[in-house]
Amino acid sequence: MSKPEIILHHYQGSPYAEKVITALRVKGLPWCSVSTSPMLPRLLLEPLAHGYRRIPVMQIGNNVYCDTALILHELERRYPGEDCSKGLSDMITTWADKQLFNNVKDQMPWGASVEEQKASPLHAVFGNKAFLADRAQLSGGRSINAEAIKQAQPYLLDQLLSNLDSLELVLQTPMHSLKQQQTPRAEGGWVLGTALPSIADFSIYAIVWWLMTTKRAPEYVTAEQYPCVFEWYKQMKDCIQRHRHPTQDCVKISAEEALEVAKQAGGSNGFVSSKEDVHPLEKRHVGDVVAVTPNDYGKVPVEGRIVEITHRRVSIRPEPLASHPEIDVVIHFPRSGYMIVPANKASL
Questions:
Q1: C-alpha angle with apex 240: 235 to 246, nearest 5 degrees?
Q2: Shortest CA distance to 8 belongs to which of 47, 62, 65?
Q3: Phi first, then psi: what are they for 171, rounded to 5°?
Q4: Contact indicator for 82, 197 with CB cutoff of 8 Å
Q5: Which residues contact 282 (CB under 8 A, 6 or more apart)?
Q6: Residue 233 clears pLDDT 80, i.e. is over it
């Protein structure tokens, strides 16, 4: 049996990886898993990602997809599902990825002691000084004061609970009951009223899942306080188990095998496009050599020649690394959240 074409490079415990994994499983897709480190260096990912700092990334042949927002849109494009309200879904995803994520991040076991690190992989990660230093660099070099975060957690909790209240209200009156005057969500349906979970559900689920892995979550996230959140979360877990691929879910392969896949798919068999669908005022065009950099964190520019550019994504072909000249890839980024400038102005 041949290996699945979808390859996810990720590390265990990442909520962003969990978002993609949830989409793959609800869609019943076969996929391969390459285990990476939660921090740099990731030497065998570099020939594919060319400096892109964030994780996870998805690989199909020699195409590399960055940012979970784009990854989920690409899965939806290739394997259409229930994303019937793309604009609203994108807005909900942004809320989950930014605001809800930061609220939950504040409640992580920052600076866990050596003894506490034995409690779970989550405690081991957030108690690892090398991990904290890596995340400080990822955030622009600002040091992380784990002790200060721990002292502030009771006061930061208010923000998390406020957003959980908002989620509870959304799930009490989902889109389908608004449209069809049906009964509350407990009898079925999802955030956008679809028959199966959509990108909006995947995005929220991953962050709630991350929250539920913390030791103190049962103290303040209860079924009595948030009955609709708990019912929806349970239905999500059940749906994932029902739909996941029966034989080729999370097929483990090595980073070397993933590089070989990219090598075999490169050259004449790789991505070929000159699509350009942009605003009349657009200043970037197919053939331009540019640097693509995230706006918020992990601001490491990736340089390459544009092979496709639209309102929603940009695809570039970087020069192969000297260490891996045989690995010729195309890297895809979303337009939202990324700055695209001429390569000689990458420091802007």
A1: 145
A2: 65
A3: -75, -20
A4: yes
A5: 309
A6: yes
Alpha helices (H) along 7-45: 15-26
Cβ 97 vs Cβ 203: under 8 Å: yes
Helix, coil or strand: residue 60: strand
Tell how strand 302-310 and strand 276-277 pair up: parallel
How does pLDDT run across 279-327, given as a tens digit for each residue?
777 788 999 999 999 998 889 999 999 999 999 999 999 999 999 999 9
Strand partners, 334: 313
pTM of the model: 0.92
- DSSP, collapsed to helix, strand or coil, labels residue 27 as coil
Q: How many residues does the chain have?
A: 348
Identity of the amino acid at 144? I
What phi and psi, each to the nearest 5 degrees, are found at residue 91? -65, -40
Burial 68-100 (b: 16+ CB within 10 A, else e): bbbbbbbbbeeeebbbebeebbbebbebbbebb
CA 48 to chain centre: 17
Sequence-distant (≥ 6) Cβ neighbours of residue 337 within 8 angstroms:
67, 69, 294, 295, 296
Torsions phi, psi for 306 (to 5 deg): -65, 125
Query: Would you say 333 and 314 are in contact if contact means Cβ atoms under 8 Å apart?
Result: yes
Helices (H) and strands (E) in the chain, counts: 13, 11
Residue 224 CB partners (closer than 8 Å, separation 6+): none
Distance CA 33, CA 11 (A): 9
199-224 per-residue burial string, b: 16 or more CB within 10 A, e: under 16: bbbbbbbbbbbbbeebeeeeeebeee
Helix axes 68-78, 15-26, angle to 10 degrees: 10
Pick from 284, 347, 346: nearest CA to 316? 284
Are the beta carbons of 58 and 74 closer than 8 angstroms? Answer: yes
Q: What is the rounded distance in angstroms from the CA atom of residue 79 to the CA atom of residue 61?
A: 16
Domains of the chain, earliest start first: 6-80+248-345 (3.40.30.110), 86-242 (1.20.1050)
Question: What are the structure tokens assigned to 212, written together?
Answer: 């539920």
